[in-house]
Amino acid sequence: QVDAVRVYVNSSSENLQYPVLFVVRQQKGVLSWQVPLIFRGLYQRTYNYQEVSRTLCPTEPTPETRPSDQIIFVDVASMAPFNIAYELLVTRLENFQLETNKAFNFTASPSQPQYFLYKFPQDVDSVIINVVSDAAYPCSVVSVQDIVCPVYDLDHNVEFNGVYQSMTKQAAITVQRKDFPGEQFFVVFVIKPEDYACGGSVPSSIHGNVNRTWNLQRTKNLQVTIVPSINKSVYVQAMFFSFLSFLSFYLGSVVVAFVHYISTGMKLTVPPGSVSIAGSGMMTSSHPISASTPEGSSYGAIDESSSSGGRQLPSPERRPPAASDTDSSVEEESDFDTMPEIESDKNIIRTKVFLYLSDLSRKDRRIVSKKYKIYFWNIITIAVFYALPVIQLVITYQTVVNVTGNQDICYYNFLCAHPLGVLSAFNNILSNVGHMMLGFLFLLIVLRRDILHRRAMEMKDIYTLDYGIPKHFGLFYAMGIALMMEGVLSACYHVCPNYSNFQFDTSFMYMIAGLCMLKLYQTRHPDINASAYSAYASFAVVISLAVLGVVFGKNDMWFWVIFSVIHVLASLALSTQIYYMGRFKIGECYVGMFRRAVMVLYTDCIQQCSRPMYMDRMVLLIVGNLVNWSFAIFGLVYRPRDFASYILGIFICNLLLYLAFYIIMKLRSSEKLLPIPMFCIMATAVVWAAALYFFFQTLSSWEETPAESREKNRPCILLGFFDDHDVWHFLSAAALFFSFLVLLTLDDDLDTVRRDKIPVF
User: Fold this and answer.
1) pTM, entire model
2) How do residues 316-343 score in pLDDT, each as one tens digit?
3) What is d(CA 548, CA 554) in angstroms, rounded to the nearest whole number?
4) Region entry Disordered: which residue ranges (predicted)?
5) Any idea which fold 4-62+71-200+215-229 has?
6) What is the DSSP string of 99-146?
């Protein structure tokens, strides 16, 4: 048991020109202070205290002295030309050494800080220091310092040594034995003279011209408990759990693929009278399709009811399949788009009231496929250039935290932050492994479908092109990469979570939501979907707005006005493009774009109020615009501080709205949902509901001060290693994976349906 001595001094003098100086000399150090003791705050404010109490650095007993003997010299001096009365009291501390799993209560104030000693038990390698208080203020600081004299226990020097946190009602610091060679440390408690560091306001008693305060009552009752942290075996169990949980998805995918292979009897050759459908086995045709197809069923033709009068249109896909998809000599897309007759036919087709998939899948399959592969290669390039600086930055953040000991830089859940190596919260990083593993699994599933499709193409069965949704996998590959990168960047964000790098955690979420909407639109509009360059340029604008929102979106009204205007105008512009099936080029005339939007409202809502020309599209766009305008009004009125999540909410709501519209229209068109997509839809709904429950269990918030954020900290809930947010990571990865599978399998029932029978909506 280590003994310690506490010195209490009091002086009635208020003369700051002649303070009383106290110097305490010990065996290994000197401690000095003055009375009145002066603390400095913001704007040159000063806080003076006439009562000071300090704990002296304990002295280890030597063979020459008895354990209870300590030689201490106290020198008292003043330069005052008159006598000054003071009081000096030296007492022995009975409870200087803290014990494991035993709560200890005490009181501290700015002029009377406290610190205690803790020694590691033999079987404990890591402990968590839990400090709680019933009152949020006064603001305090908890510090862990090595056994060095003097101890830094005043507001102006507590940050000079060790690890420290600001505190209102709760603080928690994880300490490892390996960081203290002596296997012991001091726990220091300092009360700050002002509360602004913890989110409080300046005391009302010093408003105005008064800048000096005497003996401000700022006493705080604290309770400290030191409990053992987890051991190494828990780390191993958590890692096994993380990897095995997601490896089970791989096993399930293999089982499904094997059952599918057995049930469909997939062969490498096509039997007579059958049509090969990639990814769906064989479809037996009720009537063999020959090269002499009747004129009326020619692919790409328009019905007699169409505005073209039933004349035949050129069919770019009806050509000998001599060249492969990878042929470098294939024509570029612009070779077709710039031909006047094709442009004319395109405008004729897209003005039909009832469109079918054959009307919007007329371009050469190889050219369109190459167009969508650009999504995949571009997102890889973006990922590399985006991720490398992010990784470098968060490594710097972690280094700063480790070197300075300032744990207010990063917003962890300190009650469940398990360090490993240089990382302060390894559990928050490990829980992102699901995004990377399931993203890679999705890439393998898409690759399998792609291979089956290529095999069907190699069988020279050209008429397979007339059936089902066109098989373009570039966007699916891009979605898989985006899911993996979301895991990487989320892990980077959780190395040191704070407001300045939160966009790292959300950037690829924007891209995932955007790519999903593009894929859903591409399904029945393969010829008129956005190019990779324009899509990624749009994502770049969104991410730029997110960065500006983080910087200016807190209190600046002008930013919200500009953003709301941009949001509304972008919604109108996109609505015009969708309504006219891409026949109006936004880049050609911005004024004409809005003129066209006004004409739509006039012709479809005034002249033909009973029924617009494109009823389904009009309903979707009206609902979509109402939702987006509601978001714009909400942002303008409430100005949410978490701007990145606000934009993400806009993306997710638009995606869900479009997906719901797509499924409803699919069922209205007498199409059906096969068992696999039905299971994926149900799994997506259930897992997303569970994931969002854990997401809204707020464990920290960089919208507040670090001390206020720690009030939300909670213990681990899974394996003693993962907290609620880690469970959110696990479940959201699974939910995104099932969401991707919904998009991948949603239209498998159409693989045996001719494209001129598949409606467009």
Assistant:
1) 0.81
2) 444 444 444 444 434 444 434 443 444 4
3) 10
4) 286-338
5) Jelly Rolls (2.60.120)
6) -BT--EEEEEBTTB-EEEEEE--TT-SEEEEEEE-S---S-EEEEEE-
